[in-house]
Amino acid sequence: MQDLLLFLDPWLIAPFRWPASAPAGFFLGASLLCLYCVLLGDAAYLGVLALNRRRAGAFKAKMERQNQLAETALKLGDKESYKAVNKQALDAFGHSFSLGAAIFTSSLLPLPFALAWMNLRFADATPELPLDLPLVGRQPNYLFYFVLLYILLRVVYAKGMRHIGPYRRLRESLHGTPLPKDPTE
């Protein structure tokens, strides 16, 4: 893996050297590295989702069908049938949930590579904070900065991409259902 990281090094280190100030360069470079991870992770997520769309749809259909049967049995007062069908619906939900978690995990694929490169370059050289924070001290390692920037960029990216029509339609077609424009909808 080190050979791959050394091959990518000239492209990854360049943004860190653009500003004259070392702390500004660190934050610019780390932000761009996090953005690369978000973009590559989203592409991996969409690819894996596309590959598993049929299977996810089958789990969802089974879950909905079993749920309707359970509701019908409940309305008819048939407790035994309700329990049996509801158990199957919960089983289908478990499969659907597990598949969704596995598909989401693919979006994290670039992170180990980015963190390995950051360790290679910035294991002992990170900006100092103006105050001493509990648990991290005055000079936290690269992981502290990377995680904060990654989460921030991931949230901003997700909120922004909801408003881009072609991207929104692609996600809706892969998920099989319309996505809300805002999580509060």
Q: What does this 3D model show about the protein?
A:
Helix 2 (22-51) crosses helix 6 and helix 3 runs antiparallel to helix 4 (79-105). With 185 residues, the protein is mainly alpha-helical. The chain has helices at residues 2-17, 22-51, 53-76, 79-105, 110-122, 142-161, 165-175. The protein has one domain (29-124, 138-175). Helix content is 76%, strand content 0%. The model has no long low-confidence stretch (mean pLDDT 90).
Topology:
Layout: H1 2-17, H2 22-51, H3 53-76, H4 79-105, H5 110-122, H6 142-161, H7 165-175
Helix pairs in contact: 1-2, 2-6, 3-4
Biggest sheet features: none
Binned, the helix content reads over 70%
Low-confidence regions: none
Quote the distance from N terminus to C terminus. 44 Å
- Shape descriptor reads elongated
Mean pLDDT across every amino acid position: 90
**Class from helix and strand fractions:** mainly alpha
Task: Assess the beta-strand content as a share of residues.
Answer: under 5%
Order of helices and strands: HHHHHHH
Number of strands: 0
Whole-number total of structural domains: 1
Number of H/I helices: 7
So what's the oligomer here? single chain
- Rg is 23 Å
Name its key features.
single chain; 185 residues; mainly alpha
Short recap of the structure:
This protein has 185 residues and is mostly helical. It has one domain. The chain is built from seven helices and no strands.
